[in-house]
Amino acid sequence: MTEHIAAIQALIERSRWADRAPEEVALEDADGRVLAEGLAAPMPLPRFDDSQMDGYAVRAADTQGGPLHDGGSQADAQTGGAEPGVVELTVAATGAAGHEPAPLAPGTAAPVMTGAPIPVGADAVVPVEEVAPAQFLPDGAVVQVPAEQPRGRFVRPAGSDVARGESVLGAGMVLSPVAIGAIAALGLERVRVRPALRVGVLTTGDEVVAPGQEPAAAQIHNANAPLLRAQLERMGCRVTAVRHVIDDDDELRRLLASSDFEAPDLWASSGGISEGAFEVVRRVLGAEPDSEFLHVAMQPGGPQGLAMTDGTAVVCLPGNPVSTWVSAEALLRPALAAAGAGAEAPRTISAACAEDLERLPGRSRIVRARWDGRQAHRLGGYSSHLLATAAQADALIVLGPGEGSVPAGEPVEVRLL
After folding, report:
1. What three-state secondary structure class fits 253?
2. Backbone torsions φ then ψ of 313, nearest 5 degrees
């Protein structure tokens, strides 16, 4: 499996996609795209010292012994009548988010809201629930503040998230909603991303008809085309064509040479690659000098193929719908991620299996599963025709080659979908 993932990655990196220039997109179009170059912060975040709490901005020195800032003295604080361990300060003007506050005079406390700038001269915030009375008072009133406030308490310093010029996001990162939020917080409207991989979906077989059509007695509906399209789009690819060909070599050749749609960088095909008599993909692409049709040591999804035709990569997957789906998740997704072509790398954890699982000698067994946050539960049997059962899966258990069984409760590799 590892060798074949690397081979798919190399094929993608040799396709015409690798020669396409980065593009600049608006942030609203950047979700799931791959950052083309590292991004440094054009400004610090936060931009200024701000408050972590709703409370009173104070000078820490006003709440303890020793000289005050700006040359004042402890006598400037109104301590008459205060309880032990409490300092009385005069309430200054309120600091609201979005408004620049006046400097804080010695002996005063300014009401400040979460996210609002800290007044010049203040260096601590006392939560409103800790003062007496526990409310915001008007200018000129007296508020009682607990003594011995430490400097920096509930103050978020400018640049404490990221300093000006510091790296924020690295090249090759798949942009998530929170990454897009960070870019917006830096004041940027657009971002440079790698080109989206253009993919064509190709299904094959005389026995396949489109959903909505009435199948003949020996025909089935085409599950692979919509399945693969949805998978690839979720992986960050841009699907430019979805086509089906019957088991006719010339029809497949015409399709691959067609200009009726935007040329894909990669075709993802399903079916037509095994050892049977009607394997149209293998017959046509097997003649290409860079093609390879082989068996990967996994089940389901053993038959696989790779080809390059006129600068377009072709990743050939088996035709059974579950095998198509598993192959795309287990092989194509990590290859796309490694090439920086859009997909998130699979999230893999070690977790206990809820049932006994049977290993396969010489092959990895990939088991459809449901993850409950503690254990991975096998769904149905191992057969690759169980598509409706697989639709309930949110994880894949990957059992390495071996003999015998893995007892329930033993840790196994789980890929979360």
Report:
1. helix
2. -75, 150
Which one-letter DSSP state was computed for residue 222? -
Q: Over the stretch 263-322, which tens digit does the pLDDT of each residue have? A: 999 999 999 998 777 799 999 999 888 899 999 999 999 999 999 999 999 999 999 999
Chain center to CA of 107? 49
Closest CA to 126 of 89, 165, 72, 83: 89
Closest among 312, 289, 320, 288 to 304, alpha carbons compared: 320
Element (H, E) at 226: helix 224-234
Q: How many CA atoms does the CB half-sphere of 413 hold within 13 Å?
A: 12
Query: How many degrees, rounded to 5, is the angle at CA 128 between CA 125 and CA 132?
Result: 115
63-86 confidence digits (pLDDT tens): 985 333 333 334 344 444 557 799
Alpha helix ranges (H) inside 242-340: 249-256, 280-285, 321-327, 333-339
User: Using CA atoms, how far apart are residues 178 and 160, in angstroms rounded to an integer?
Assistant: 18
CB count in 10 Å sphere of residue 146: 15
Rounded to whole angstroms, how far apart are CA atoms 285 and 295?
A: 16
**Cβ neighbours of residue 324 closer than 8 Å, sequence gap 6 or more:** 224, 227, 228, 270, 301, 317, 318
> Using CA atoms, how far apart are residues 150 and 131, in angstroms rounded to an integer?
15
N-term to C-term CA, the chain: 18
Encoded tokens for 95? 């600091």
Distance CA 185, CA 189 (A): 10
User: What is the signed CA dihedral for 298, 301, 302, 303, rounded to 10 degrees?
Assistant: -160
